[in-house]
Structures are given as structure tokens and as C-alpha cells.
Amino acid sequence: MIRGSCLCGGVQFEFESAVGPFELCHCSRCRKSSGSQFMAGITIRAKGFRMVTGRELITKYELPVRDEPPAYARVFCRRCGCVVPEADPPNTESFEIAAGLLDDDPGVRPDRHIMVECKAPWTEFREGDLPQFDLDALRKLRAEG
After folding, report:
1. How many folded domains does the chain comprise?
2. Can you tell me the mean pLDDT for 5-14?
3. Rg (CA), the chain
């Protein structure tokens, strides 16, 4: 099992496998939510995910739809403010969590930068860095997928 937790340790979860993609999102909402130049999001299998402790500490803030659905939501621990997975994840095969929450190695590594047209002005990509996708390229990639 791969374990994860929030900053205060009140919310703890575990899951069996990370499947990817493992994306570094540069959109303004992810940057603001993470307080960094990007949010590292890793896709995990829903089957095998379990909230261990802290279900009662989880709060959800939903932002309005900006251009088109889905809306953006930030799920967090109300004690420490750290972003966390939803207590009851969506009824899908897989879903994304913030990779910075992981206490164990997920066994996969970042594979792409996304929403690069929104990157912070100080963000510079280097030769040989991960592939970069703007919104249109990302939509095309996911449609093929």
C-alpha cells in the first residue's frame, strides 16, 4: 500500500496503485491552491483507495465554473489547510490526488507539464524537460486516450 497524509497528520489515506498520468499543472487555480509554480497531480486507481483517518476533518471549497464544466474544487483538511483527497472519491476507475501528500514512493514519475500557457512568469523549461501541453494539446491528448 502507498500511504499519504496531510501536514498535521489528521487526514491519512492509502491506496494500492498509482497509474498515471503524473501531471504538473501550471493553471492559475492549481498554482494558487498549491502556493507553488505548479500542482503535481498523480492519477491513482479508485479501487484500493481507503481513507484511514480524518474523514471528519475534510472540507470542500468549490469555485464556480470558469469557462466550461467541470468546476474547480479544493478539498482540504480544516485543521492544517493542506489539500487532501475527497473522503469518498468519485465513482470512477481512477482519480487524481496531489502527489505532495504521499509518504511513500508511488512508483511513477512526472510525465508532462500541462496548461503551460498559464505558467508563472518565473517558470522556465529546460532542454530535455518533460513534454509540455497547452489546453488545446491537452484536450486532444485526453480525447485520444
Report:
1. 1
2. 98
3. 15
